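Exercise 7b. Backbone tokens:
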């Protein structure tokens, strides 16, 4: 299965949630190739893997986005996840069910912030790199969630109610395998060495190679037959 192109006119503003990971970076590369005027939003939620913030900044600079905001929003105040609390990141392999690396309501929170910027910037389009095939079972990565959020966006905003905007949440990767995402990234010319996936970086700054995110990344490159530029510790 191949990624869908952005079906929006070139030159329109698009708010992209840019974590610095492979998926969001692929969306950025695809949107740029489609001629979108990108507003990149990175949430600094005091995550364990803060290394991804530097990756997001490097990607935003590489693609010359119109504006890049790194917004502090400390979710460690809530905890409830191995990414935002003193809970060990699982290293035993990708298991069924919702893992402890799920951050409560993370994509709902992030998309809500993106919606606020979109309305303020007179942008009707938001993009997020969620995926519902090769992923860790997070409930806020499913098509049903995205459709529900999009409907809410058009009910909860001044622009939506007045009819001056019809908000759309673009998810070009949602039906792709991880291998499909790697191929889409390659097709879009993304330098995948700039991206960061690991949930639990080693002290010397490498991907651990054992967390769910590292395992899915490895699997994607292997199955896509694309050379993996990542420095894994294991």
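Sequence design result:
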């Amino acid at each position: 299965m191949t990624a869908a192109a952005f079906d929006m006119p070139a030159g329109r503003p698009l708010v992209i949630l840019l974590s610095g990971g492979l998926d969001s970076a692929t969306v950025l590369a695809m949107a740029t190739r489609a001629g979108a005027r990108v507003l990149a939003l990175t949430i600094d939620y005091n995550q364990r893997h803060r290394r991804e913030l530097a990756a997001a900044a490097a990607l935003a600079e590489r693609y010359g986005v119109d504006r890049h905001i790194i917004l502090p929003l400390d979710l460690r105040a809530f905890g409830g996840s191995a990414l935002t609390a003193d809970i060990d990141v699982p290293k035993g392999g990708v298991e069924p069910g919702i893992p402890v690396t799920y951050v409560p309501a993370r994509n709902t929170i992030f998309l809500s912030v993106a919606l606020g910027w979109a309305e303020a910037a007179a942008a009707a389009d938001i993009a997020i790199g969620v995926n519902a095939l090769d992923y860790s079972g997070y409930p806020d990565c499913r098509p049903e969630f995205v459709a529900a959020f999009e409907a809410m966006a058009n009910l909860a905003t001044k622009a939506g109610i007045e009819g001056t905007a019809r908000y759309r949440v673009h998810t070009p990767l949602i039906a792709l395998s991880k291998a499909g995402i790697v191929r889409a990234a390659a097709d879009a010319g993304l330098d995948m060495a700039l991206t960061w996936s690991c949930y639990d970086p080693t002290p010397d700054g490498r991907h651990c190679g054992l967390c769910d995110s590292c395992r899915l990344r490895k699997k994607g490159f292997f199955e896509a037959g694309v050379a993996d530029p990542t420095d894994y510790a294991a």
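Instructor comment: Strands lie at 13-17, 37-44, 67-72, 125-127, 168-170. The first helix runs from residue 22 to 33.
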